[in-house]
Design a protein that fits this description.
This protein has 126 residues and is an alpha+beta fold. Helices cover 41% and strands 30% of the residues.
Length: 126
């Protein structure tokens, strides 16, 4: 693990415990069981959804992309603003926004799973 990840964890200590897990040549950052950020090549990317995307777009930040089968694939993790590395309060605010996006995604997925489960149960009764 590079020195960058412990630096980010310390920067976000006011958020609470942030753990790191290796994934796809980088690391996922987790808080309260939800992945809210990724670190790839010493760069921090934060979770984005329709609620916080405007904050990232307003600063000209861009999504994390990778190549797959000759096509560029964009993830819902966008570059973190450089300024947060000098201001822990801003870092926590941006990380909390990313965690909130992860939470909303988790809730939406759970609701979709419940609907699918209910639909399967109705079909099975027929």
């Amino acid at each position: 693990m590079s020195d960058f990840i412990p630096f980010v964890q310390e920067l976000l200590e006011d958020l609470g415990t942030v753990s790191a897990r290796r994934m796809f040549g980088g690391h996922g950052l987790y808080h309260e069981g939800l992945m809210f950020a990724i670190v790839m090549n010493q760069q921090l990317f934060l979770k984005v959804d329709e609620h916080n995307r405007g904050d990232f777009e307003a600063l000209g930040l861009t999504p994390f992309t990778y190549e797959a089968k000759g096509k560029s694939v964009a993830l819902s993790y966008w570059t973190a603003p450089d300024a947060i590395f000098d201001h822990p309060q801003d870092a926590v605010r941006w990380a909390r926004s990313a965690w909130d996006a992860a939470w909303r995604g988790h809730l939406a997925k759970a609701q979709a799973n419940e609907k699918a489960k209910a639909k399967r149960a109705r079909i099975k009764r027929l």
